[in-house]
Specification:
single chain, about 240 residues, alpha/beta, Rossmann fold, six-stranded mixed sheet, 9 helices, globular, binds adenosine-5'-diphosphate, binds magnesium ion
């Protein structure tokens, strides 16, 4: 189990140009589970994930991992909604994060090959990453993040605009990673995906966390009118 938890978020807030993007947030995340951040467009999902990952400066409060903050930084990864591919081959994209860790070349190649196969790109190792389809790119971005074996992985709507097959493949990779102990904290706008993957839900609206509950509780007996409306498919403002 990761030394990074519990993650204590106390009064954490991000403001930009006088506008509150997210917070103040007061929650504690434990070492186990898969946390799903849900809420309508513009609710603050991306801002919350970036704030927790430490790439959005806090204007108030604290985000405190249980270990040293530099170590926490090294042990976490982030997959962006539209990942940037290196102008290199699939295999080189996978080797790159390992090269940064000074992992010997032969071992890095072997691990990269394993991951290419795992994501169904075994036959495309030499292809330029920039010409991959949307689903292939997203799988490669995911593999590039997981290949380092992070304790925590943030993903921001990783399946937005992907077809059903790519979504299923990505969900399978996430489920396997989660089962092997990677702590996943992600957002989605897809309630089917949230139900399939989440063990707990953070429901956010206007930058404010309205609910933080076990997935079963959230989906069966949402506590707030806003969450009930959102789950009903109503327009929530
Ligand atoms: N860097 C930024 N500067 C100013 N406003 C921002 C910035 N990033 C996001 N916003 C605004 O903050 C709000 C929340 O955005 P975001 O976190 O992207 O929501 P979501 O991911 O739920 O769609 C939106 O109104 C968005 O326009
Ligand atoms: Mg977003």
């Amino acid at each position: 189990m990761s030394v990074m938890f519990p993650l204590q978020i106390c009064g954490a807030q991000v403001r930009r140009r006088g506008k509150v993007l997210v917070g103040p947030v007061d929650i504690t995340l434990q070492a186990e589970g898969l946390t799903m951040v849900i809420g309508p467009n513009g609710a603050g999902k991306t801002s919350l994930l970036k704030m927790l990952h430490g790439i959005m400066r806090l204007n108030a409060g604290t985000v405190k991992w249980a270990c040293d903050q530099d170590e926490a930084r090294r042990r976490q990864g982030f997959v962006f909604q539209t990942p940037v591919m290196l102008r290199r081959t699939v295999l080189e994209n996978l080797i790159y994060p390992l090269a940064l860790l000074n992992i010997p070349k032969p071992e890095a190649r072997e691990r990269a090959r394993d991951w290419a196969t795992k994501i169904g790109l075994g036959g495309a190792e030499g292809r330029q990453a920039t010409v991959l389809s949307g689903g292939e790119r997203q799988k490669l971005a995911l593999a590039r993040a997981l290949i380092r074996g992070p304790d925590v992985l943030f993903l921001d709507e990783p399946c937005a605009s992907l077809d059903g097959r790519a979504m299923r493949e990505i969900e399978a990779i996430l489920q396997a990673a989660s089962a092997e102990g990677t702590r996943i904290i992600m957002s989605t706008h897809d309630m089917g995906q949230a139900r399939r993957l989440a063990s707990e839900v953070i429901f956010i609206l206007h930058g404010v966390v309205h609910e933080f509950s076990p997935a079963e509780t959230f989906f069966e007996t949402p506590q707030t009118a806003q969450a009930r409306a959102f789950l009903n498919g109503d327009i929530v403002e």
